[in-house]
Design the sequence.
């Protein structure tokens, strides 16, 4: 009998089982220690309100996407869902416990009143004559409002615009405590199918911000795998795509080892904020982090497989926009995990460098030059790379454009300039114009007496305001939004001209 086939001796087997038992106990102990630490830390968070604990019963789930259930049914169900939200708001708003300007106040809060219509819901903007159709999908903890500026511009350009509210968004923060990324993907898929049925000959485009960009890529990868190329967009526009997050994100739901039994309910939350933003949750459920990590993991497996078998070449061309400085997603991950895999030379990535005139580069916690080099010097770069930057001592920007696999950029001056007090863009800034009614950069108060949420940089003692200094100073709107819009519209026009 050979050594390879000789049975394991009983004593050796017992030793192996003992070590496996020790290993399993160690892992379980570590997980429970993390969960206990979560529970201990969470005790310092503010008290939960019904917006954090109540469950809405009429939210869409992937299991409902059966034949015959389409976008119109989604809108009807969404209307009933928002009736639940109104009833809960009416029953539970407390002017003592909740901010007087809370989004859950009787009138929805003053910031919501700045914009006509309810932009927390899915929408459809019909164009006549119709040159094409576009589906726009927002990011994590956001609502369709984050795509409002892009939607209005594309509609003016003759496109019928669909804006999708992802399940768990635009209602209560508790919606993300129960969310599943497969529900988000099912909502995207049924909306595309609806568009293809109602607008069978119209060129289709897709625009996604952050998680919305990730979902668009996952949808496209699934369509390629199913050989349904007829359901692919002609071009995709991706703003701050989420393709790399914290390596600890998959552990976000470890706390459920304890919280699922009703213990330490606040452990389910990364933070509990004052809900005055009418279109984005101030509180963040840890489950949301776990879901985006699972979605990114599934997409990265798809992309790696497609790169290996060559089907990556069937993916739609992409126009992407990304800030070098991004505290939400990993910008370097975009180089190797996505853009570096693209083929065909038909895609473009626009990178926003830091403001080098600000003189703050020595104070940065990383090297923006190294991030840009990760894209410039990739082993294979089969896409056009555009870097918007400025020289030391100048506020005005110039464009450095590298053709696919080229190393010498073409340079041109732009009629863009950094605001004097801005040192970089941010993950949350890209989709919003600088004059946005809610997140704009204008410093003064509006008629309602409140400053823009994008210009709330007030001085005083730390800890006195419910909104932290870091959130106040984070850039919430894009001073170069018009340039972004011009690039999107140019690519749309070029695609339409080829048809």
Sequence:
């Amino acid at each position: 009998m050979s050594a390879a086939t000789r049975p394991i001796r009983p004593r050796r087997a017992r030793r192996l089982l003992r070590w496996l038992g020790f290993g399993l106990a160690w892992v379980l102990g570590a997980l429970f220690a993390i969960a206990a630490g979560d529970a201990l830390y969470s005790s310092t968070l503010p008290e939960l309100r019904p917006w954090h604990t109540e469950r809405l019963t009429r939210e869409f789930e992937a299991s409902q996407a059966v034949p015959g259930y389409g976008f119109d049914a989604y809108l009807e169900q969404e209307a009933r869902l928002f009736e639940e939200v109104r009833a809960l708001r009416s029953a539970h708003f407390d002017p003592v416990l909740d901010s007087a300007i809370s989004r859950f106040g009787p009138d929805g809060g003053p910031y919501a009143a700045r914009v006509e219509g309810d932009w927390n819901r899915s929408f459809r903007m019909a164009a006549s004559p119709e040159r094409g159709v576009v589906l726009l999908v927002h990011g994590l903890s956001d609502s369709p409002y984050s795509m409002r500026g892009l939607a209005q511009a594309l509609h003016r350009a003759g496109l019928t615009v669909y804006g999708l509210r992802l399940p768990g968004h635009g209602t209560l923060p508790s919606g993300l405590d129960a969310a599943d990324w497969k529900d988000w993907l099912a909502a995207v898929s049924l909306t595309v199918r609806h568009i293809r049925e109602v607008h069978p000959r119209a060129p289709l485009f897709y625009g996604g911000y952050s998680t919305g960009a990730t979902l668009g890529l996952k949808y496209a990868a699934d369509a390629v795998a199913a050989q349904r190329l007829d359901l692919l967009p002609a071009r995709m526009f991706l703003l701050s795509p989420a393709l790399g997050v914290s390596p600890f994100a998959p552990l976000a739901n470890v706390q459920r080892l304890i919280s699922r039994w009703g213990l330490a309910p606040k452990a389910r939350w990364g933070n509990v904020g004052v809900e005055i933003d009418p279109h984005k949750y101030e509180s963040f459920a840890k489950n949301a982090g776990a879901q985006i990590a699972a979605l990114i993991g599934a997409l990265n497996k798809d992309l790696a497989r497609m790169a290996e078998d060559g089907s990556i070449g069937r993916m739609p061309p992409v126009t992407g926009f990304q800030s070098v400085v991004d505290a939400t997603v990993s910008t370097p991950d975009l180089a190797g995990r996505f853009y570096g895999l693209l083929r065909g030379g038909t895609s473009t990535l626009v990178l926003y460098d830091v403001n080098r005139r600000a003189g703050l580069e020595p104070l940065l916690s990383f090297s923006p030059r190294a991030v840009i080099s990760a894209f410039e010097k990739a082993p294979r770069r089969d896409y056009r790379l555009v870097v918007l930057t400025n020289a030391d001592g100048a506020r005005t920007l110039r464009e450095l454009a590298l053709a696919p696999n080229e190393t010498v950029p073409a340079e041109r001056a732009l009629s863009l300039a950094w605001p004097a007090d801005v040192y970089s863009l941010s993950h949350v800034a890209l989709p919003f114009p600088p004059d946005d009614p809610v997140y704009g950069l204008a410093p003064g108060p509006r008629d309602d007496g409140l400053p823009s949420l994008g210009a709330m940089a007030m001085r005083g003692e730390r800890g006195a305001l419910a909104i932290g200094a870091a959130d106040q100073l984070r850039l919430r709107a894009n001073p170069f939004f018009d340039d972004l819009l011009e690039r999107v519209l140019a690519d749309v026009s070029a695609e339409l001209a080829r048809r």
Q: What stands out?
A: The first strand starts at residue 123 and ends at 125.
